[in-house]
Amino acid sequence: MTALFEMKSLTKNYWQTETQMECTYLFSDLTATIDSSERIALLGKSGQGKSTLLRMLALLDNADSGEIRFNGVQAKDMDTRVWRMKITYVAQQAVMLPGTIEENLKTVSKLHNETFNDKHAQKLMKDVGLESIDWAKKAADLSGGEKQRIALVRSLLLAPSILLLDEVTASLDQQSKAYVENLLIKWSEVEKTAFIWVTHDLEQAKKVSERIWYMENGTLAVDCKTESFFEHQHSFSDSVIL
Amino acid sequence: MSLLALTFTLLFVVITMLLSVWQKLDLEKDIAIGTVRAAIQLLAVGYVLQFVFQSKNLLFIVLIICIMIVVAAHNAAKRAKGMSGVVWRIILSIATMEILMMGLLLSLQIIEATPQYIIPLSGMTIGNAMVACGLFLTQLKRETESSKGEIETLLALGATSRQAVQDVLKRSVKFCMIPTIDAMKTVGLVQLPGMMTGMIIAGADPVEAVRYQILIIFVFTSSSAITSMMLSVLCYKNLFTKDLQLKKWSE
């Protein structure tokens, strides 16, 4: 059976910034698959290339070698826009587009000439704890946490097959964080959406994921079930300090 | 103006140079080069125009306008270092504007179809369009860099390149229109424009001079809008790679 998503021997190089003479790899030979509605937490210390990997999977950045496939189709053989609608990236720093909350929420329907599903959007806003917010409010005036939750709802309205979540709860308080975690777990179960969630929070990884990818020294050092990771955490690395 | 009177105008240059020496501005060399270049360029243009006006050959008029457009495009393209193929895009934008403007002015018989009208008016509108292109490209670069997050957010939501930079283009076009619109609002109150002043000094009826100045201001506004909008249409795809990723705008 074809995996929902597959990455094979993915490598990203970078040039040493000081000399621009020496090329070294950020990560190399990353190989893994994702099945439908699988929830993955991507762990690793800062600088391992987790965000770069997510951007590459969303085709916002290019790999130097290797290939990625969605439903067996290579990224280069698929329309980039269709790919991004199926595999959607949510950035660490939520960016609100100019205009009101409503205009931000309607972005996806406007971009793709679709009818805006008001009830669906209201339901999602309730799920992230923003049911009482005034949609006429300027998006730029919102707090960081509100912006992040609206950015997430905006991406969910696209109904992607895979969500790429780059530390999306880093700027949220405990309550908002719990709202988002619960929403995404429920969303994954109901809509059969997979996600790769970059986090430095081990408790969060334990709560939201079924599988752990752990990046270390430019490789995907660990790819295992979440329970197994936390049972054998000590043996994977000197210390999984994130 | 006699040649002697013209020579006396060098006094202003001398005053500027003395001020530069006194204030240690170190601008004497640049002032000297600028003075010589301005004199040679303008005298040469004067003789060329005299020849063209006398010959009344359409080919010469077209040739002069083409040279103006190419020089303007090369100059404006300096504002977009790192963007490939921008010169021909500016040429196309300014040329389209020039054809539209001159087409309207001549077909509606607003001006006479003689080199005396066509060349100076073309020079002024092309010069204005060059400034608009330079401002547009400078602002486009700034906006693209400062709105990277906004553009990538839209791309991540499946936007086309056009959709992803639509607001950035709109803001850049608006920015390069501001000087022309501001000039339109304050003309006559804050500044007496060069063409009008020149005509009055040359002995023309002030009301007639004002009429031509009104024509120029309206043409300027339209030329800024047409050129910058056309350039935005021609340039936006250049901001992206073939994989629909935002390019790094290298110097």
Provide structural commentary.
The complex is a heterodimer of chains A (242) and B (251). Chain A is of the alpha/beta class. Chain A is built from ten helices and ten strands. In chain A, the strands form two sheets. In chain A, strands 6-7-8-3-9-10 form a six-stranded mixed β-sheet, with helices on both faces. In chain A, strand 9 and strand 10 (219-225) form a beta hairpin. The model of chain A has no long low-confidence stretch (mean pLDDT 91). Chain B starts with a helix and ends in a 16-residue tail after the last helix. Chain B is mainly alpha-helical. Chain B contains ten helices and no strands. At the A-B interface, helix 2, strand 6, helix 4 and helix 6 of A face helix 7 of B.
Question: What can be said about this structure in brief?
Answer:
The complex is a heterodimer of chains A (242) and B (251). With 242 residues, chain A is an alpha/beta fold.
Q: Pairing-aware structural class of the strands and helices of chain B?
A: mainly alpha
Output mean pLDDT of chain B.
91
Q: What's the structural domain tally of chain A?
A: 1
CATH topology of chain A: Rossmann fold
Secondary-structure element order of chain A, as H and E? EEEHEEHEHHHHEHEHEEHH
Total count of helical runs of at least 4 residues of chain A = 10
Helix content of chain A: 25-40%
- In whole angstroms, the N-to-C terminal distance of chain A is 35 Å
Large-scale geometry of chain B: globular
Regions of chain A with pLDDT < 50 over 5+ consecutive residues?
none
Query: Helix/strand-derived class of chain A?
Result: alpha/beta
Radius of gyration from the alpha-carbon trace of chain B, in angstroms: 21 Å
Q: Biggest sheet of chain B, in brief? A: none
Number of domains of chain B: 2
Biggest interface: chains and residue counts? A-B, 26 and 16 residues
Could you state the order of secondary-structure elements of chain B as H and E? HHHHHHHHHH
Q: Proportion of β residues of chain B?
A: under 5%
Q: Beta-sheet strand percentage of chain A?
A: 25-35%
Net shape of chain A: globular
Query: What share of the residues of chain B lie within helices?
Result: over 70%
What is Rg of chain A?
A: 18 Å
